[in-house]
Amino acid sequence: MPSFNLFLLPGDGIGPEVMAEVEKFIAWFNKQGIAKLETARGLVGGCAYDAHGKAISEEHMALAQSADAVLFGAVGGPKWDKVPYDVRPEAGLLRLRKDLGLFANLRPAICYPALADASSLKRNVVEGLDILIVRELTGGVYFGEPKTITDLGNGQKRGIDTQVYDTFEIERISRVAFDLARTRRNKVSSTEKRNVMKTGVLWNEVVTRIHAEEYKDVQLEHVLADNCAMQLVRWPKQYDVIVTDNLFGDVLSDVAAMLTGSLGMLPSASLGAPNAKTKRRKSLYEPVHGSAPDIAGTGAANPIAMIASFAMALRYSLGLGEWAGKLDAAISAVLAKGLRTKDIAGDQPANASTSQMGDAILKELKAAA
Ligand code: NAD
User: pTM (2 decimals)?
Assistant: First the structure.
């Protein structure tokens, strides 16, 4: 039986509530003997600040480093709005991304047929949508130097951000995209602005070369980022995997996310480089949503984004892709039966709490096992 260490960081607000639902699945996987999933729990965000004055302790960073996968809930809330910048709740997440070298952010946009009417686009445009945005997460304009605001002394200031990409950064993110495409519909759409940006020219050149040298079996197209944004709301089903830089990925993944309805439905994965010996990648799985302080403690949180993030961990870190597929199918089946937490209930009253939604999905999974 395969054995893995999972490090759980539930965080703040609704984080612990949605993580509690994932723990039900972990317990069931262990009981069924599907895999041995050993768990440790840690503190991140506001709760970590309350406990030891840091957004994550060194001890818990070490546990994250040694884990096969980190499952992360959400951090933050009004209680910590005034804590010093360096130890604010989000600093815990940024530290994890940086120290684990999580350069590839994967955000699927899947539109479950039962929720197609919740999208702002027409049903036929989004129904059955299943695309994956692969965003470069540790480089580009968010990190490039110089990054300054200078007083020009004439009543004017100048703000500078620098977009920088080196060859190796583009090579490794494009390999992630091509590898993922091979497990899906075998198509990669590489997105940049080569018409006006030098980094776009280099991006295009490197992706083209990696494709020719290593991935000729995968279909590759190049799409300018502004056109990609337009195409995503015109006919998103033309895409399979979209690979793009940090800035365009930030924007395009939010556009794609909204095709599918609620924030409570969106999972994500962040992956690092494969270990030379074990071939395993460092990884962190988290829902896209935040700590939702407005509904924390009310039982109204939708646990699907967190449960679907766990499904991504099964697929990308634990080699249990078949079970990930079954779990995704269980989510779809529960939605098709009409179960709704408040965020996806539309004009109707909610008919499921956080734990009722988690229990119903587990019941479906058990039935399919
Ligand atoms: P949010 O994602 O927490 O909430 C936005 C809205 O969506 C709220 O109305 C909330 O009730 C709703 N919502 C979010 N997740 C839901 C779920 N699973 N089920 C049902 N409804 C859900 O964003 P926000 O309100 O801008 O931020 C709240 C706090 O979370 C802030 O402190 C912010 O800094 C933090 N935050 C953390 C992360 C993270 O941990 N990765 C991401 C975004 C925001």
Answer: 0.92
